[in-house]
Amino acid sequence: MAAKPRVIVVGGGLGGLWAALRAAENGVSVDLFSLFPVKRSHSCCAQGGINAVLDIKGQHDSIHQHIVDTIKGGDYLADQPPIKTMCESAPGLIRTYDRMGVTFSRTPEGIMDQRLFGGVKNKRTCFAGATTGQQLLYAIDEQVRRFESEGKITKYETWEFLSIVKDDAGHCRGIAAMNLHDMKVHAFRGDAVILATGGLGLIWGKSTMSTNSTGAAAARVYQQGAKFANGEFVQFHPTGMLGHDKLRLMSEACRGEGGRIWVPRDPKDARDPRSIPEKDRFYFLEEWYPTYGNTVPRDVASRAIVKATRHLGLGVGGKDVVYLDLSHHPRQFLEDRLGGILDMYRTFSGEDPYTGPMKVFPAMHYSMGGILIGWEKDETTGGMKLVSPKNHATTIPGLFACGECDSGYHGANRLGANSLLSASFSGIIAGDAVAAYVKGRKQSAADVPESFFEAERKRQEDINHRLVSSTADENAFTLHRELGEIMMEHVYVERDNRGLDQALEGIRRLKERSQRIRLDDRGQWSNQSLSWARQIQDMIVLAEVITLGARLRDECRGSHFKAEFELKIPEGKFRGDPEYEAFRAQWKANNEKWLKTTVATYSPEGPRIDFQPIDLSVMAPTEPRDYR
């Protein structure tokens, strides 16, 4: 009698919880691993909302427009059928969350409210005050707990994923993981593994992400053979609050609710910002992009802020700072709709954002790239089949990926409030995919010889032993600080090939030095230095993937910007003007060369970069992005 199918989910955020839930609903037992209690997953930090076309405001919004905005917002770089299906599924997903008890904000009439977000013209974002991610995460965890109480889902919290276990055919058959209390490594069997481990913001030293968002899990499966796609496409959120410990997000919801970005027109103006009259304020987004104003897409806004501060010298106090101002709104309005965000700013800055502007600057926020995943097309609808073992499958058989660690939905730039949508949707799709995969399996993980699991467990124990016993001279925390400095200087909002070459040289030196780490803590109980040392080694590996991809891509697309290769829209010219049509012809020619997915394959000498075509069957790239 065949063993009952059992799968492993790594990560307890929205993607991982949804994947576990869907697998359990399909009759598959699940082992769920998380670095910490799942309610602390980074999904809970998402503030602004989740996109779905409900057209509550009567603006004649449509699912088709959501699809167009997402494809175009990503500068056409993502495969389009999965985007189509995600946007079509969004309204039903919101209703599901509503029935689960998510406390979405509502109008005085009791109707679910929606707000404006960047890169769109219609109010499409459902929200729960300023803590939407937390409300969604807690609601789905309640559903998971039901299956947990029935013994169908088992949680392993405070465990760190170290590697997958592969059989002699190269198929994923389980994982090796480390108990973060006693630091012992164990091997676990699974007929399939879903990686839902989030982003990689710590590669930049500081980011708006959780301080656990290192990308180490993705780096580990990449080094075991999973391909990594579009690493160079990283989102720098335009309104990050700077801090000595980390960067904190001032949500796009602030601008969606009427927040305005500005600097003094005179860079020497030292007056209290509240006393600077309107005529002396430069609302540069509103002047440069009058159609969208402060709600241009994030990549556009971040470049504009860098232009205003570093190129025009208009930064507040001569620094890399601009103002984000909501103080023109009534206090009660702000407390009701943005209270969680503004209270956080007040706590960490000591300044009152209800009565004066906030100080912000672009901060590392999200990775559009990630583990390369597959999908199966539905030839009838033109979208993605909702249930297929090919969906979210990596290049390692039996290994799947969902959430921010995959590369599936956002192309070269993610639209605001599409992240909670893609995390939830991809988790649902991945859970259904593994259920289909394991039910069609020819061999159970239970039938794989124990020697494969013991060999991988011992390999990981040996890595730990080498680090704990090392007498070398490198410090993991120093290496991380230097890596962050390299990435912030050369792989930031604006890039150039000379700087990227310097970054690659620096990263390769760090990679060599990272093999000589010495730990301050050699203990065998809750050794955070050991865990961190392993993570910094993996962060350096991914940093090289990201930087090499950026170096090889000689164009401007979405979040990836090299001024040397910029195709500028002719000022004051629009569709039909000869100058604009000449620009559009150049843009189409550039797409012929560069509209393709960057794919990195691991080798000990460094990543090998190839490119693969994109499915453009839903919306042909005929019109450049133009948010003026």
Characterise this structure.
This protein is an alpha+beta fold and 628 residues long. It folds into two domains: 1-45 and 139-233 and 368-628, FAD/NAD(P)-binding domain, CATH 3.50.50; 239-363, Succinate dehydrogenase/fumarate reductase flavoprotein, catalytic domain (Flavocytochrome C3, Chain A, domain 1), CATH 3.90.700. The protein has 15 helices and 21 strands. The chain has helices at 14-25, 63-73, 80-100, 132-149, 216-223, 253-256, 284-288, 298-311, 331-349, 419-439, 450-469, 476-490, 497-513, 528-552, 578-594; strands at residues 6-10, 29-34, 50-51, 114-115, 125-126, 153-157, 159-166, 172-179, 185-189, 192-195, 228-229, 234-241, 248-249, 260-264, 281-282, 322-325, 358-367, 370-371, 399-401, 597-601, 608-612. The strands form five sheets. Strands 13-12-17-16-14-15 form a six-stranded antiparallel β-sheet. It has a five-stranded parallel β-sheet with strand order 6-2-1-10-19. α1 (14-25) packs parallel to α4 (132-149) and α2 (63-73) crosses α3. The longest helix has 25 residues, at 528-552. The protein starts with 5 loop residues before the first strand and ends in a 16-residue tail after the last strand. The model has no long low-confidence stretch (mean pLDDT 97).
